[in-house]
Amino acid sequence: MKVIAFNGSPRKDGVSARGVSIIAAELEKEGIETEIIQVGNLKIQGCLACRKCAELKRCVISDDPVNECFEKIQNADGIILASPVYFGGIAGTFKSFLDRLFFPGVKMKYKAGTTVVSLRRTGGISVFQQLNNYFNLAQMIITPGIYWNVIHGNTQEEVLQDEEGLCIMETQGKNMAWLIKCLEAGKKEVPVPELPPRKRTNFIH
User: CA-to-CA distance for 59 and 114, rounded, in angstroms?
Assistant: First the structure.
């Protein structure tokens, strides 16, 4: 079993990375491999809204790691999305990455997802909700937690003072491992539902 973690912070070894590493350590204890991919410090263009991905099943922009990451997550059992708070929202580069990663139609239905939100003081809940929107619209299962997945600090040293945040990250790792194993076991006993064809409507006629 394998989880792909995306660090959307420009800082490879910052607070977001610390949160991911705590979750990854718990997953590893349960025999679940975690691959951490740093994307927040790369040059990634936003979605062009060209809709070519519907035809190509990949993004038409090919000079950054979005398509490679798209292929990686198809075979993963779960995803971790980590972002710092920028003006109450997802870090800009990471938002561009996620829009293009999920829009072609990732095959992550009924797989596990969890988030890491890092911040100095406040604004984390809106980022937590924004990140979870990607999971929800991909029909993924969001890992349950004891609180919002927020961890505080400007540096990895400061993070050590946020004992509750550290506990939240550890709990997420344990819960995610349990969820992935439950989903894997459930496939043998309970077939996934047959869904009706999707219908798209606009509000302007």
Answer: 24
Contact assessment for residue 146 and residue 111, using Cβ atoms and an 8 Å cutoff: no
Find the angle CA(125)-CA(130)-CA(136) to the nearest 5 degrees.
120
Asked if 60 and 52 count as a contact pair (C-beta separation under 8 A), the reply is yes
What confidence tens digit (pLDDT) does each residue in 44-97 have?
Answer: 999 999 999 989 989 999 999 999 999 999 999 999 999 999 999 999 999 999
Average pLDDT over residues 162-170: 97
Max alpha carbon distance in the chain (Å)?
56
The band of 204, judged by pLDDT with boundaries at 50, 70 and 90, is confident
Side chain identity at residue 66, one-letter code: V
Strands of 27-111 (E only): list them.
33-38, 78-86, 89-90
Structural contact between residues 4 and 71, judged by C-beta atoms closer than 8 angstroms: no
d(C-alpha 16, C-alpha 87), whole Å = 16
Residue type, position 155, single letter: T
Residue 128 DSSP one-character state: H
How many angstroms separate the CA atoms of 40 and 8, rounded?
Answer: 4
